[in-house]
From TrEMBL:
The lineage of its organism: Bacteria, Pseudomonadati, Pseudomonadota, Alphaproteobacteria, Hyphomicrobiales. This is M23ase beta-sheet core domain-containing protein. Keywords: Hydrolase, Membrane, Metal-binding, Metalloprotease, Protease, Transmembrane, Transmembrane helix, Zinc. It comes from Pseudovibrio exalbescens. SUPFAM superfamilies: Duplicated hybrid motif (SSF51261). Residues 332-426 form the M23ase beta-sheet core domain. It comes from the Bacteria. One of its GO terms (biological process) is proteolysis. GO terms for molecular function: metal ion binding; metalloendopeptidase activity. InterPro entries: Cell_wall_metabolism_enzyme, Dup_hybrid_motif, M23ase_b-sheet_dom. The chain crosses the membrane at residues 35-60. Its cofactor is Zn(2+).
Length: 443
């Protein structure tokens, strides 16, 4: 093979390419075709490039994947942060909306409560005025009631600013203390007495703070509640004064020996049980009952002959046993003698009907009046008579004049009070009348 190559070279022809392989057994030449060699070289080059490219890719893939994963993670975190911010904004908006709805709900509830309290106030004020009118009609003197609360206009969101908002967006807190009625009696024009009247009940005061979002709406509600409580206190005062008068009038009736029907209906005594101020209707009922009973009892007492026929004239002879001024012997004096000048007017101690007017033995010129409940009064030793039998007279009417007719030692009035024609001490009735006058005067 080698000799052939040399021969071709000497001949001038371009010999083929050979690869000479040496080994212990000798040399071996392998002929190479240029085309084949070029193809093989190209293949080797392509393989090498591919090999190194694949090797480089495999070496750099992890770094690329790690970098890509990092970029994706950063992008994901960015998206998540944006989503979190958006959720926070949504929650903030929802929270503000819920707070606004809650405040609106509170305002509506408070407004409804105010309207209910306003309606209650108007109804109770009307009832209170009726009770006060009844108190005046039945004689419980009320000189003035200048602090009578006038009904407030019904609240309306369109008529007033319901809530004021500060710069920080939070509602201003508006409120104030309601003034408790320490002594409601002075509102009725009642003069103070030594009578102790129990306090009408616990004071009502607004809460320490107003609920957020209510503002002056809450203050208005407490203002209305304060007026309601003031009305309760005034009503409690009227009831207390009526019950005080009832007890005093019954004590007057108990001193007399006359049956006063209304006095038997006045139940007094027992343990003290304060009436809850919250029960306004019960207060109204009890007050109306007390005023009505007071009026009937007062009417019954005023129908009795309780006035003194000669006012403050001095007494010269009391009722009961005495020495007869003519016989100088013990005798029963069936009346009371009042000293007065001849011609002094004699006034009727109570209303009634004249059943006798004329001359009657030792009584001289006299008048007899028949009253209710079996009561009669006699007026003796008169100088002149100004009434006649059958006349209807009223308390204070002039019956005649003081004189010295009949069995008399000088000008004076002999005054008798009889129950079912039995003589009774006239001073018991006169003292009861003075006590009644004092009761009416303090009212």
């Amino acid at each position: 093979m080698l000799s052939a190559w040399r021969k071709q070279k000497r001949s001038g022809r371009k010999p083929p390419h050979y690869i000479i392989v040496k080994s212990p057994k000798g040399e071996k030449a392998i002929a190479l075709n240029p085309a084949v060699a070029l193809a093989a070289g190209s293949a080797l080059l392509v393989f090498s490039v591919g090999y190194f490219a694949a090797t480089g890719y495999l070496l750099m893939r992890d770094d690329m994947l790690a970098k890509t994963a990092l970029q994706e993670a950063e992008l994901r975190r960015s998206y998540e942060d944006e989503i979190t911010k958006l959720r926070g904004r949504i929650e903030t908006l929802n929270s503000k909306q819920q707070m606004a709805q809650h405040r609106a709900s509170l305002r509506l509830e408070s407004l409804e409560s105010i309207r209910n309290h306003q309606s209650t106030l108007e109804q109770r004020q009307q009832k209170l005025l009726e009770v006060l009118a009844l108190a005046q009609d039945t004689g419980l003197q009320i000189a003035s009631f200048t602090t009578n609360p006038k009904p407030l206009p019904k609240p309306s969101l369109a008529q007033r600013q319901v809530i004021s908002v500060a710069e920080n967006g939070l509602p201003d807190s508006v409120g104030g203390e309601t003034v408790p009625l320490e002594n409601p009696g002075h509102l009725l024009g009642l003069r103070p007495t030594s009578t102790t009247i129990p306090a009408p009940g616990p004071k009502t005061s607004p809460p320490e703070t107003n609920p957020k979002g209510l503002g002056d709406l809450s203050a208005l509600e407490w203002e209305i509640r304060g007026q309601i409580d003031q009305g309760k206190a005034v009503l409690a005062s009227v009831l207390a004064f009526a019950q005080r008068d009832l007890e005093a009038l019954k004590s007057v009736a108990d001193t007399l020996e006359v049956d006063v029907p209304t006095a038997e209906k006045v139940a007094m005594g027992g343990p003290y049980e304060p009436l809850p101020l919250s029960d306004f209707n019960t207060y109204v009922i009890k007050t109306e009952q007390a005023l009505s009973l007071r009026h009937r009892l007062l009417t019954d007492l005023q129908a009795l002959p309780l006035a003194a026929p000669l006012g403050q004239a001095p007494i010269t002879s009391d009722f009961g046993a005495r020495m007869d001024p003519f016989l100088n012997k013990p005798a029963m004096h069936t009346g009371v003698d009042f000293k007065a000048l001849r011609g002094t007017p004699i006034k009727a101690p109570g209303s009634g009907k004249v059943t006798f007017a004329g001359y009657r033995g030792g009584y001289g010129k006299s008048v007899e009046i028949t009253h209710d409940n079996g009561l009669t009064t006699r007026f003796a030793h008169m100088h002149k008579l100004h009434v006649k039998k059958g006349d209807r007279i009223s308390t204070g009417d002039v019956l005649g004049e003081v004189g010295n007719t009949g069995r008399s030692t000088g000008p004076h009035l002999h005054y008798e009070t009889r129950i079912n024609d039995t003589p009774r001490d006239p001073m018991r009735f006169i003292r009861a009348g003075r006590k009644l006058t004092a009761i009416l005067g303090r009212s």
